[in-house]
Amino acid sequence: MEQHPKQSKPIKHSSFKIPIQTELITEILLRLPVESLLRFRCVSKSWLALISSPEFVKAHLNISANNKDYTHHRLMMNFESKYNIKDCSLSSLFNESVIEAFDLDYPTKSNGSYKRFPNSDRIVGSVNGLICLAMEDYDLVVWNPSIRKYKKLPDSRPRLERMTYDFHRYGFGYDEFHDDYKVVGIFTCGSLDQVEFKIYSLKVILGQVLLIV
User: Fold this and answer.
1) Does residue 19 have a pLDDT over 60?
2) Does a structural domain hold residue 30?
3) Residue 140 to residues 29, 121, 155, 165: CA-CA distances in angstroms?
4) Is 8 inside any structural domain?
5) In b/e form, how buried is each residue of 122-136, taking b as 16+ CB within 10 angstroms?
6) Residue 116, in any domain of the structure
7) DSSP string, the chain
8) pTM here?
9) Contacts of 204 (CB under 8 A, 6+ apart)
10) How confident is the model at residue 18, as a pLDDT?
């Protein structure tokens, strides 16, 4: 009896759906640039919750910070010009002999209320992708350039008796023990006869607005 070879049935792609584990999705997302993560928040509610979680944000920052190729790093510089903050790719410094720095569209640049002295913006410091800017010495802004959001901090001027200050400096950093970003201000009058320190805890001020990628 002649046997006819069995004809294989066409395989439908719909029957080959393999569920992707949450762990695998997380590992993939953690290695993507912020611009891609911003778009992928719209995929589903679960992806939005994952990408917006503090744990994911910290893990993403850690991976980016330890990237030996510096592909996600930018170098920012102050210049004595009308719009005096520029940036360039950090990785390009290792690969090219000549690089170009570009004008940054930072928040205080486009805000006319701060332009009494157009070259007064300066970088106080940066940590974990957040930039602290000082405008005309006493107006402070914390800015996340990756998501183009910023927060203006409360008036930093001290309540010393004199209205002018001979010296003032700011510092910006991250308090790992309290999981908090802080700005420190030092103000003096005269021959150090009046000194005032201010420490801003940004945990309440910023919330997660600037930290969500």
Assistant:
1) no
2) yes
3) 33, 10, 8, 17
4) no
5) ebbbbeebbbbbbbe
6) no
7) -PPPPPPPPPPPGGGG--PPPHHHHHHHHHTS-HHHHHHHTTS-HHHHHHHHSHHHHHHHHHHHHT-TT-TT-EEEEE-SSSS-EEEEEHHHHHH-SS---EE---GGGS-GGGTTSTT--EEEEEETTEEEEEETTTEEEEEETTTTEEEEPPP-----SSS--SEEEEEEEEETTTTEEEEEEEEEETTTTEEEEEEEEHHHHHTTTTT--
8) 0.66
9) none
10) 44
Across residues 58-71, what is the average pLDDT? 77
Torsion of CA 52, 63, 30, 129, to 10 degrees: 40
Residue 23 pLDDT greater than 60, yes or no: yes
Write out the residue range of the structural domain in which residue 163 sits: 121-212
| Structural domain total, the chain | 2
Give the length of the chain.
Answer: 213
Q: Is residue 9 part of a domain?
A: no
CA atoms within 13 A on the CB side of 189: 11
